[in-house]
Amino acid sequence: MRSISLWKTNFLAPASAMPALLDDLDELALSVAVFEDEANELEETVRWRIDLTFDHEPALDKLEAGLQEIVGRHGFTLRLAALEPIPEADWLAVTAAAVKPLRLGRFFVHGAAARSEVPADAIGIEVEAGLAFGSGEHQTTQACLDAMEGLTGRRFARVLDLGTGSGILAIAAAHLWPEAVVTAVDNDPVAARVTAENALLNGVGGRITAGVSEGWRSDLVRLAAPYDLVLANILADPLIVMATDLAPNLASGGVVVLSGFIGRDLPRVLGAHEAQGLRELERVERDAWRALVLTTA
């Protein structure tokens, strides 16, 4: 695999700026990763670390000016860490070593280095996150997995993971519903490739079709509809925009798991989908983040 040279930096952001801040950062860097930096006594996240990765050395003055403008709109001061090169390496191998093993309900999400640590009573999901978002550490991923575990009494034959990232939710769905065929898409070609690789790595490559799609626009997504289960861990505004596409592509009695938004955005997300005839089954809370489980019936 080709070795690549990358550059990195980070800054801290208050919880009040999330997740809207991520929308503004989306086009700024090759990848944007979010990690909890500080929590309060209620174990609610109050500050996040935003890691930015670039595939070239950005001009520091332009980068700082662009970030100053963005964070100013969200009401906090930028303190940018030093811009540093990441030594040339096999990026997937570096990421694999850095993936922190996580026990999430019946799942154990891990990198290659922790392959031998999977508990006997857990379903192991090995991820080589590469340049795609998704090592299981983010609360929205965990909220979706919680919601999915609550649906194991149902049967799903066709599953869509919309905005798949590194494929964790698609792989989890393939394990929870062995009879299901899973379509996993992302608007990032790197994410689609990494998802396909991770599906093979976890022994479910034959049941997961990964590809590139801007929401519901691709033939890959449309031709596999209607879906019994749709998983969409993205952001509030895209979820709201795509609500009108989701409803007609959902099978009768189908279920939707939505996440990627905080509590204050829940009424908007829920309202947009209720307007399309869906109703709430459950909501899951992970710190400030939320997941909604909806159905057609």
Number of strands: 14
Shape: globular
Main β-sheet: number of strands, strand sense, barrel status? 7 strands, mixed
- End-to-end C-alpha gap: 48 Å
Pairing-aware structural class of the strands and helices? alpha/beta
Work out the helicity level.
25-40%
CATH homologous superfamily grouping of the largest domain: Vaccinia Virus protein VP39
Q: What series of H and E elements makes up the topology?
A: EHEEHEHEEEHEHEHEHEHEHEE
Low-confidence stretches: none
Integer tally of domains: 2
- Here the CATH topology of the largest domain equals Rossmann fold
Total helical elements: 9
Rg, alpha carbons = 19 Å
CATH class of the largest domain: Alpha Beta
Read across the widest sheet, the strand sequence of neighbours is 10-9-8-11-12-14-13
Percent of residues in beta strands? Answer: 25-35%
Which architecture name of the largest domain does CATH use? Answer: 3-Layer(aba) Sandwich
Give the overall average pLDDT: 86
